[in-house]
Amino acid sequence: MHLLIILIKFLVTILPVLINVAFVTLLERKILGYTQLRLGPNKISFAGVFQPFRDAVKLFVKQFEVNSNVNWKLFSISPVFILIISVIIWTILPLNRFARNWPLRIISVLIVLSLGVYPILLRGWASNRKYAIMGSIRGVAQTISYEISLALVIIQFIVLFISINIKDHIGSFLWGVSVVPFTAVIWVVLLLAETNRTPFDFAEGESELVSGFNIEYASIGFVLIFLREYASIILFSTFSIVFFLNKEIFSISTALLSLLITSMWIIIRATFPRYRYDKLINIAWKRYLPIRLGVISFMRVYLHI
Fold first, then answer.
1. 60-90, pLDDT tens digit by residue?
2. Alpha carbons 2 and 294: distance in angstroms, whole number
3. Nearest by Cα to 121 from 197, 201, 213
4. Quick check: 82 and 224 in contact, CB under 8 A?
5. Distance (Å, whole) CA 65 – CA 218
């Protein structure tokens, strides 16, 4: 009975996410199509609504062949593990900032999120292919570099909002208004780098790395990697709305704002060229990290937070 309840909770969590992923891929193909003066998928059903499901069926029935020198156990379990991490993050995400133990939940999200580097590294190593190993190393280095700044931004807001009381509410509000515009720009860059999306898609850059760490994956393995990428985009979009705007996670306004932020990922992909890898790492360690540490130190010393 207990296992049945856990299974039902898992399905209730994962099924809406998977359906959202399907329609986000359709949204991406439509936006990219119109930016290039073409329609995008429009043949399957009305305006191509069922195109993502047809693509999923095609990928699942596709033949799956790899080299004989791969490490089959790690090679097979890595895509499953990375998708499970995304599902776990969804389950511990707080409903809003007034939820019980929300700072602890946010810190738990960061801890689980940091586990994502292991499946990336395992995918490259288990493939036993130099292109996959190169892509996984780049992906791990990029993820670690930007997760530190990402955590510092979240810690900054936790320290700010957890100390607010009625007496200094106006001062805290003015402080938040003055800091948020600058933090928002850094937050967007951090999310793009964390999700390995254009213009920071070095781990999967096809022209340089021949599709990176997922070069040996096809059929179900590729689908799981694909689902995790878009599930992370939806996760960070919803997380941004819940955490920074204090919206309820289950509301129409949160869904619309999350759709708007998800569209931003796609528009950036259609607009900006790929960045240079060494400049990306330099920005993480030489600019964003000192700025975040300086802001937190300023809040601690001068604002007595």
1. 888 777 777 788 888 888 888 888 888 888 8
2. 48
3. 213
4. yes
5. 8
